[in-house]
Predict the 3D structure of the following.
Amino acid sequence: MLKFALAGNPNCGKTTLFNNLTGSTAHVGNWPGVTVDKKEGVYKKCAEPIKIIDLPGIYSLSPYTPEEVISRNYILEEKPDCVINVVDATNLERNLYLTTQIMEIDVPVVIALNMMDAVTKRGDRIDAKKLEEKTGIPVVSVSALKNQGLDELMKRGYEASKTPRKGKTVLEGGALAHLIKDCRIALEGQGVENALFHAVKLVETDELEVKSHPASKAMVDEFKKTFKDNTFGDDFEAVVADGRYKYITQNYSSVMVREKTKKEKLNRSDKADKVLTHKIWGIPVFLLILFAIFHLTFSENLLFIGAALPEGWVSLEGTAAEGLFGTEGIASPGVFLTNLLGLATDSITAAVQSAMEAGEVASWATGLVCDGMLGGLFAVVGFLPQILVLFLFFSILEDSGYMARVAFILDRLFRKFGLSGRAFMPMIMGFGCSVPATINTRTLADKNERISTIRVIPFFSCGAKLPILTAIAGGIGVAFGLPNTDIVTYGMYVLGITVAIVCVLLMRSTTMKGDVPPFIMELPAYHLPQPKNLMLHLWDKTKHFVKKAFTIILASTIVVWVISHFSFGWEFLEDTEIDRSILAGIGQLIQPVFTPMGFGSQLGAFGWVFAVAAITGLIAKENVIATFGTLAACIVGAVIDVETDGGIAAAGAMIAATGITVPALISFIAFNMLTIPCFAAVATAKAELPTKKSFNFTLLFWLGTSYAVSTVIYLIGSWWWTVFIVAAVLAAVVVLIVLYNKGKINFSALKFKKKARIK
Amino acid sequence: MPIAVAPAGRKMKVVKVTADDKTRRHLENLGITAGAEIEVISGSGGSIICKVKDGRLALDKNLSTKILVA
């Protein structure tokens, strides 16, 4: 099959083009660096099917960040049949800079002139025909967003792929032309492919190139001695870059006709930036937006006006829809949708139960289906609306172009913690799912910064952990009669962020030292979020969630139900005998480990369920609440007689049955949030971390952090005076680190450990 | 003068970039080469947003003190 690669600057619309060509639904976002790995799809509307490869965005073929290496290597080593160079027409000169480099490779190229509609709107004009004449490469105007010109583009690409193209350079008239020619001839003599391209990169003394052709480097060095440029000295990279830009300005810029009458004034994006990136207001505005998002997702008392509402305003007491719109106040959209779904799942469970009872199915089977499978599944699925609402808001922020600004305004703050603003992107993605967030750390240029960021990403509570937060917070409300439990939910998000900051600070001042790389980010133009994009994001999330619910989570709930209903002697147990089950045995065995955190041996008869739930969470975080859902029915049946449906009720029942305290519950949430994430996230971290050693240390780090933080929460929450002990220990640690960094003290034992780690 | 203290809204030319090699290369790829036109759009405490070619770049304080313009 023919292979066409999409190459171009970051955020120029490659992935949108890719999705429209192949019918894929790859993630598109309005900030540079969304695609960090190559993606494949097939275009079928040509004479023969063509494989399309979407590559990470690059500004040049000399890579700066790890993901840029992927693009360069693909074009050079996999030898696509044609490179479709996507060019953002609104920033023509800068985009053509990459084009002049791709032209040097012996590969057929087609230029896709994207975002022409934005250029027209600006009142400018680009003569695509003229550009084609000047570059000698087919140029096709397209709109990736509106799906215009794509078939024409592929047709021209298909034609181009049939005839091999010889690389040519725009540097021929420049001062280094002779040197480039000499290098090219030398490399051709050695049988190197794409000799011209490698020759130019060699002259630029490109890092990767010098490594692979050390012999020819000598020639360049020799020439350097005789060469003197007035502006750049012997910095050949600068001479080459300057040469390219000069050529582009002289030869290609004439294809762009700018509207003359237009006054040079700030456009709308610049005006918005005056406010949103303001040095004082930027961060408060961001925090306000963040609070609004969480409030609209989790609050059961929208705008906190519950107290001002007349009694029983819409509680619909006595009807089926009781509490749908909220009881103590107006429910936020997130809570409203959750309530709505809760009504549906409750009636399904009830219908299945009565049908099975009417059909006189064995009671164990009814138990397995209703309590085990449905109870566990619905406890989790019930939170899907909130996950989607939260995700929708983040997608809107991302698609509008605001996220890139937030990275910029947070950069100054992040620098104090030893990170660059770029690390903000993977972190905010962590609120959705740790897996793509971890992969996205490839946009970070510094290795130690990247490792530190990967380690703290799980602390940004992901969608799967959201049910734990909401269910337990809600359960606290139910069991202890506390109002506005959504404050607990926000509080846990804040806790996660705080722990992440502290850990980054600690790592960057001890084992993960290194300079913070400079912050350079292209800011995309603001645009209205694309409804199609938003729907794609939400659909992707739903698909992923449902798939997980009916595979991993369903399987886990069945296993949990089975081992909670059989004794070690494989004897079937009634709900009330759950204390003799295999699960109870295992739970009681591991329970003491959790004692310092408040949900171990000190709990009553069923205390082991918390230990078990935490362990099942290692497979998928949704399992924590699914396990509660599965076990709630039996335990509640054994202790108190209440109906339980949904995650919050299940958590409330657990709390009542075990006699766990509020500090212990908070500590339980914190432990699940901070500990080793799910299988998928662990596997991703393993793949992205540079060494086995750093991965093993990461696992230990997650365990240690969660254990320590949860213990501290439980201790301080239960006995307030322990705050002094904790503060003293913390202060001692900080003093030790500071003294160590200043070289005032020396730990020989620690030093040994450090050496081992470096290996 | 360093672009960190340059006035907003005025077109200027890059004179010199004094950052380390790797960063300087990246800046060159982005169009910040000696002689290139550059305009500060807004700044906040040394961090700036500037217009280079037709794109908007955000740079941190440390970098913006290393780009000399006139």
Summary: The CA atoms of residues 1 and 68 of chain B lie 5 Å apart. The longest helix of chain B spans residues 21-29. The first strand of chain B starts at residue 11 and ends at 17.
